[in-house]
User: Fold this.
Amino acid sequence: MKLTVKSLIWRQFFVPIAAIILILIVGFFGYILIEGYSSLDSLYMLVITFTTIGYEEVHPLSPEGKIFTIVLIISGFTVGLYAIGKLSSFFMEGELSKLLKIKRMNASLENLKGHYIVCGYGKTGKRVTEELLRKGNKVVLIESNSERNEKLKDVYDKNLIHIDGDATNDEVLLLAKIDKAKILISVLTTDAENLFVTLSAKDLNKNIKVITRVEDASSAIKFKKAGTDYIISQIDIATDRIISLATSSTDLFSFVEFTDGMEELKDYKFKLVEIRAGSDMIGKTYRDANIPHRTNLVVLGCYLSSNDLHVNPKADDIIHLGDRLLVFGTDEEIMRLRKIGKGNSPKND
Assistant:
């Protein structure tokens, strides 16, 4: 499904154009059948009648012909007013600007690559979208709720493309260029909708990373089977936060909130760096890998190949292939660690 200006203009004026054509056809053949006019005489009568010019008839009309002419004039006048009304609304009520906006959107979508797709503009979707845009990312936002779409008309950003549609529809995802997208974030109202979007996304683009919000934590296993890469459960997040606050004097969540508001730390971020085949760190201890000296980074945690998070790894812990190191630093420092994590393997170039 591709929205084009031509198709939308045609959709706007199809009814009046079709009605005018129908009246012309009926009028042309009507005079031939009712009055026995020739084709030229019938065309002449049709033109002077339909345009209400009011010249004399070619031949005197029969009673049936007069009734037919009256109906033809009233029909033409009514359809003409309807067409003028549609044309006025097209220019006066913002229809033209809406179509031009769609044209610009289509042009932007054509060149889109490595972007984020956000499905749903509720409280979570709004915050996610705003944060992605704040960091300069290109975002395609899909929303089907008419009330929210109305609010989105006042949201302007050069990196934001808003699609009014159902994210569970494959055609809408294709319109959002899911085949070229980097990450899809689904924060729709229900788990069923989010699961459906996940299945569709993975079917249309096997390489896309899918982040999904789950309301019912027991549904997580279904999302894993569907191909979800990262599952966010609000209940689990709240539980972890409460336990962290209750069992320690300081916690990672507080640290994140603290650093997020500090201007001098605005260039610092949390990132996961995967250890791939060819890296010289595989099989070494954290002490021997000497990451702080080589990159100026400190490893805060490590996601093992089993997806278990190991917080604050010890100096004697071994680094394995597939481990994902959680670090906090600048882009330059993180990029340095990524190069070391990739090693010299040709597969990773």
